[in-house]
Amino acid sequence: MTKSLLTDASRRLDRALKYVTISEDAAERLKAPKASLKVSIPVRMDDGSLKVFEGYRVHFDDTRGPTKGGIRFHPQVTLDEVQSLAFWMTFKCAALNIPFGGAKGGVTLNPKELSKAELERLSRGYIDAIANFIGPDTDIPAPDVYTNPMIMGWMMDQYSIIRQQRSPAVITGKPVALGGSLGRSTATGTGAFYVLEAMMEHLSNKRSGKQPSSPKTVAVQGFGNAGAVVARHLFDAGYTIVAVSDSRGGIYTPNGLDIPSIQKFKADTRSVKAVYCDGSVCNLVEHEVITNDTLLSLDVDILIPAALENQITAANADAIQARYIFEVANGPISTDADDILEAKGITVFPDILVNAGGVTVSYFEWVQNRSGLYWTLDEVNQRLKKQIVAAADTIWHIAQTHKTSVRTAAYIHALNSLGAAMDARGTRADYVSGNRE
Ligand code: NAD
């Protein structure tokens, strides 16, 4: 039987709990989602037939505010996956001090097999099915794997039709023309770059000249929305990106890939084929075609998993040679693999910090929608940098103080703020049993 992703995710909590003083009640409540909705979405296909798709929306915890989390369209979406993604969102929002709880949604399908019109009907059908489970003050979706601003625009429109009022704040990651925030589409990759730069500075202060080399070579698994943007920032900052990949495989060159050309090729062709260099980009550099497994085990300074969860497990962790791993994807490393990597001296910077730029700018989008005042790109990026670097610094210092992994430190930080909110809110049970003074 395959191990539950949520069970594995919860093991991270157990490790952090011994460093925090939150009540046992609060800790217990954080082990299971508050509510999970499973829906059927009937969609009229272009050939006239009717197909029924399965979808989910999960609220994990709403103590710190309305729940927040993306919607994934992927053939491997299951309730367990959506619940674990909602768990991570809860801790991510708490770690970043964003006034939201955690949620996630998903539909089990391969969106590449649907026409644009079918995809729009499916997206609107999903909102019809979950409309009473979401709302600007209750639960606010956003994009995730294989969903994008166009889909968020359709979903916002459908929700507004149902409610008979324009409701931009119900969903984030919308097209800018429909109330989306500038900088949202690049926020995850940009935030990851800010975290990486901040952590490199801490590491270099810690080394204090003992180790001369600063990290320069990078491999990125998953050249999508998040992975391509972080690759581009690193390329512009002078790092050598030796390998990138997508779901079908990757390319490698020790001299470094020309990331802007790969991005342009991908944008022009709208095809993930771009990373295969079967067009003009191929000729820019000599390269070798590699598998995703090979990419993960390359001898690089920095490895960036930016595709899906469970990419590094006990089965392949021994083969990992990178010095540092920055988790841009959600949950790319299993808990067993964490232990193996730690024993090998590899430092892992966790998803709930590294990829939190997306939800941070989603929060900014929600604020802008509710106030009606829109910010410049510079304003968005400055606020993003301030918020994510503050969290990175705090988490780094907690890791140094308690001598824990950076992941455990991130959970300690998140748990402290979640526990404080839970205890401050009290529980009805306490009143009923007369426990209160
Ligand atoms: P995306 O759909 O834009 O890109 C995903 C990329 O991964 C694609 O290039 C795809 O081909 C590739 N991929 C899929 N399976 C793969 C495999 N087995 N091996 C290698 N590559 C594979 O999605 P995204 O928005 O960039 O999300 C990527 C990850 O980042 C996900 O884990 C997501 O949850 C996480 N994330 C995204 C955001 C965001 O704002 N987009 C925010 C936080 C976290």
Automatic annotation (TrEMBL):
Q: Which residues bind substrate?
A: 68, 92, 362
Q: Name one GO molecular function term.
A: glutamate dehydrogenase (NAD+) activity
Which Pfam family would be a valid example here?
Answer: ELFV_dehydrog_N
Domain of life, source organism: Bacteria
Q: Where does NAD(+) bind?
A: 188, 225
Keywords attached to this entry? NAD, Nucleotide-binding, Oxidoreductase
Q: Which residues form the Glutamate/phenylalanine/leucine/valine/L-tryptophan dehydrogenase C-terminal domain?
A: 181-426
User: Could you say which residues are annotated as the site Important for catalysis?
Assistant: 144
Tell me the first and last residues of the signal peptide. Answer: none
Kindly give the InterPro entries that the UniProt entry links to this protein: Aminoacid_DH-like_N_sf (IPR046346), Glu/Leu/Phe/Val/Trp_DH (IPR006095), Glu/Leu/Phe/Val/Trp_DH_C (IPR006096), Glu/Leu/Phe/Val/Trp_DH_dimer (IPR006097), Glu/Leu/Phe/Val_DH_AS (IPR033524), Glu_DH (IPR014362), NAD(P)-bd_dom_sf (IPR036291), NAD_bind_Glu_DH (IPR033922)
Positions of the catalytic residues: 104
One GO biological-process annotation of the entry reads: L-glutamate catabolic process
Family under the similarity heading: Belongs to the Glu/Leu/Phe/Val dehydrogenases family.
The protein in question is named Glutamate dehydrogenase
